[in-house]
Design a protein that fits this description.
Blueprint lengths: L11 H20 L6 E5 L3 H12 L3 E5 L6 H6 L4 E3 L6 H8 L7 E4 L7 H9 L11 E2 L2
Parallel strand pairs: 1-2, 1-4, 2-3, 4-5
Amino acid sequence: MLVARIPDGVATSHAAYTTICAIAMQAVRQAEIGLGDRVLVMGQGLVGLLVTNLLVIAGARVAAVDLIDERAQVCRSLGADRFINPAHGNFHDTLRDWTDGFGVDVAIVCTASRSNAPIEQSAEAAPRSRPPGGRGNHTH
């Protein structure tokens, strides 16, 4: 549980964003990103966009994934190398091309879904992040 005192004069609605940022920061910390690591960020809602931004700042190369095409421009403006909508074309071929066939170093899932597809796609995309020493993360 994340608990923090809200300073006097800070509206509760503004303070709520602190928790969302903390979730994104924790995902990046747990992933132990290295300079130049290729990271898949599945889901580009608020948490996913924050994760994408933090990863770029940390020196990672990011492939941002979302089903909403309108998020592509925001992802690119935050520094994502690629925006992939899995509904258009072959998701895995696009990632293999971007990673020269090696797969991503880390996959971070920042989406909620009724299916396991985002988690399964992330696991397949990140063969080098599986245990032992696995570095895949799931946030929500």
